[in-house]
From TrEMBL:
GO terms of biological process kind: cell division; cell wall organization; peptidoglycan biosynthetic process; regulation of cell shape
Species of origin: Nereida ignava
Superkingdom: Bacteria
Name of the molecule in the record: UDP-N-acetylmuramoyl-tripeptide--D-alanyl-D-alanine ligase
Compartment(s) of residence: Cytoplasm
Principal localisation: cytoplasm
Pfam families, A to Z: Mur_ligase, Mur_ligase_C, Mur_ligase_M
Amino acid sequence: MSLWTSAQAVAATGGVAQGSWAVDGISIDTRTIEAGDLFVALKDVRDGHDFVAAALEAGAGAAMVSRVPDAVPSDAPLLIVDDVLAALERLAVAARARTNAKVVGITGSVGKTSTKEMLRDVLSAQGRTHASVASYNNHWGVPLTLARMPADTQFAVIEMGMNHPGEIAPLSKLTRPHVAMVTTVAPAHLEAFENIEGIAREKASIIDGLLAGGVAVLNADIATSEILQNHALKSGCEMRLFGEMSSAYQLRSARVLNDLTIVEARIEIDTGTEDILFKVMSAGTHFAMNALGALAVVDALGGDLGRAAIDMARWQPPAGRGMRERIVLDVVDTDAVIDLIDDAYNANPASLAAALAVLSSAEPQDNLGRVSSGRRIAILGDMLELGSDEMAIHASVAQDPNLAAVSKVHCVGPRMKALYDALGAPQRGRWYETAQELAAEVSHIVDAGDVVLVKGSLGSRVTQVVDALRKLGQSTTSTT
């Protein structure tokens, strides 16, 4: 069954179809378009209309446009609309209306993508599941995700992000979730908010889109939890809290054993409480919290909580989000390895602290390389959008207690220069203006036996360092 026929798309958007067609997917990027996709000509850095001809040549089943580009044949399969983004939103509304799926909306300063992926994995074992791709969580990412949702979806997991006030509520109202989750609230995007309380109020507005009888799943442990809970109380929705401070979904312990985390939790049930034990195949207490919140969501959806707890052991973080890899440096001497923690997609003070905690618990290997003792090495890029106090925030990382276990800290970017200057001589590694410069030198600053964390905001481009590390040898996903 097709995702959209031309008649359905016309009914949903109010546009005019050129030709009769059907599409199986939706794309906004000719680099990843698949045969049979509807190409949506959004305007961003570039005008998507400039790529319509290329999309059709690549096999697109049709294109949604607000004008017919000059290079497009007169008989091309098109959906002509007044405004492409507005029409995509109308397509999203129609997709949401035609499905009986149980829908989850997720937001949070840290952990929303990882938690979304956890839910994708565990819910996929319980029904046909649709979820946001990558971090498609903004004003076009959310409608695109909804518009891509097949009519027979049983569970949908929609991630929602923001950079400025007033962005979350419209996305939630478009999504109309049965369950809304806030993973945590942390100092991120401070350039656009006066304080962390403002961020909490913005995150809490995901509750505004809940369907009648919906459930808010909220972090009980954060300082701004009361703001989240008050918003839920005013909305009249059911509220379920998770964390060490919660009695409903209480985190009892999280033990990190190299590449995995063993989680003990106590959950309220109709007859009292039940203790559960489950594993997350990734190191970090923050992953334990995200997993517990995800289980609370599954329970709120009426899913099989016990099965979800077992299936959580299959989940591993995606690339750039804390994924653990092993780089084999020598095809002959396969013991000559570097363990890489790829956390290079995003960074703020809370996520950096969590990443340093993971690094501090990792076990290097001795007597493998030029340096007899294996080391824990942190390669840290700038954290962006932190506002006027950004230099002081970067410098304060030097006080993180987990840094005591780190042998060397190499810094990238003008903001991380503040941390570099604050570090003591034994730990202070090298500072580079750009990630490209560090990437060119990476073979000189790591050695066999090392565990290497790469962390930074996407704009710091430390993904280039991750790529350079992978090119030192053969990369494999680390397993326990």
